[in-house]
TrEMBL record:
Gene3D superfamilies linked: 3.10.50.40
Family: Belongs to the PpiC/parvulin rotamase family.
GO molecular function, a single term: peptidyl-prolyl cis-trans isomerase activity
Catalytic activity: [protein]-peptidylproline (omega=180) = [protein]-peptidylproline (omega=0)
Pfam family membership, one: Rotamase_2
Keyword Signal: yes
Protein name, per record: peptidylprolyl isomerase
Top EC class for this record: isomerase
Source organism phylogeny: Bacteria, Pseudomonadati, Pseudomonadota, Gammaproteobacteria, Litorivivens
EC number(s) per entry: 5.2.1.8
Length: 308
């Protein structure tokens, strides 16, 4: 054994292994540079925010948007460093398509290699998004199944989510504000007739959504009739089987007869347990991704670009 330890060849092998692993450790933990966002990118982020929300972003919003963009670029850079673009079938197919568009020649492997050498993958937004998705999945390690106590805690925290709203089945007769006369007055004149079992089909004006409505929530009514209608229905506590009104809407006035009401109810824990498991896993994956990003940020330093 001592003789083996004294062998120079063994020493060279051990030193080589040490240098190999040490170099890998240094490369894995070395700081990597990433350019700060240029003014055009920052302006694009602001414009996107305005287009989506209809308002100017606050400084806090802009800081968050910039941080998210830098995180995406960091994930993309890390995916390239790990060569994820060289073994991903979606990326490879995209590179082949780009190679054909550029007129690159050769077999599929040669086209892909040429496209990568030209940096095509760095300017293709589809490839960029795919690489970011790969890194997000890489960051999300598998988790144990949640316990019932964890799910019950989540169930209690999300009570409003499991509320099934009351639903109404009803008929309505519409009196348009676009016709001569006040719609409320016209509705009141017809109310007595309808209570006397007059032919409903002959009363009122045509309405886009029809006369009969089954199992509609107050939110559904707001969408179809406007908030004034759903507010009036909610406040009235409408009697079953009787015509009442006028009920105002965004279009005029209505006479309404409620035929059935399904009261609001809370879904039970057992009923929503599969959904709770999905929510719990999503939360865990989000936490894992944020933790991974926090560690990754320690390895990247943002440097001022040429535009700064």
């Amino acid at each position: 054994m001592k003789a083996l330890i004294r062998q120079p060849a063994l020493h060279f092998i051990l030193i080589g292994l040490f240098l190999f692993f040490y170099q890998g450790y240094r490369e894995e933990n070395a700081l990597r540079e990433m350019e700060a966002l240029d003014s055009d990118t920052v302006q694009r982020l602001q414009d996107d925010f305005i287009r989506q929300t209809g308002r100017l972003p606050t400084p806090e919003h802009m800081e968050l948007l910039i941080r998210q963009e830098l995180d995406s670029r960091m994930l993309y850079a890390e995916a390239l460093r790990r060569n994820f673009h060289r073994d991903d079938q979606v990326v490879l197919q995209r590179l082949l398509r780009d190679a054909d568009f550029l007129g690159l020649e050769g077999n599929d492997e040669e086209k892909i290699r040429a496209a990568i050498e030209l940096g095509v993958h760095e300017s293709d937004e589809v490839i960029r998004r795919r690489m970011i998705q790969r890194m997000e999945k890489h960051a999300q390690t598998s988790t144990d199944a949640p316990t019932d106590n964890e799910l019950k805690k989540l169930y209690e925290e999300e009570q409003a989510r499991w509320l099934v709203p009351a639903r109404y089945t009803f008929q309505q007769v519409f009196f348009s504000a676009d016709r001569d006369g006040f719609p409320e007055q016209r509705a009141e004149r017809h109310l007595t007739e309808l209570r006397g079992e007059a032919d409903v089909t002959e009363a009122g004006d045509p309405f886009l959504h029809g006369r009969q409505f089954a199992a509609r929530s107050l939110q559904d009514m707001t969408y179809m009739f406007g908030a004034a209608f759903s507010d009036a229905m909610d406040a009235a506590g409408p009697p079953l089987g009787e015509w009442f009104g006028p009920v105002p809407s965004a279009y005029g006035a209505h006479l309404v007869r409620v035929e059935d009401v399904q009261p609001a109810r809370q879904r039970s824990f057992d009923e929503v347990k599969p959904k709770l498991v999905a929510i719990w896993r999503e939360q865990e994956q989000r936490i894992q991704l944020q933790n991974y990003l926090a560690e990754l940020r320690k390895r990247y330093v943002v440097v001022e670009g040429r535009d700064s």
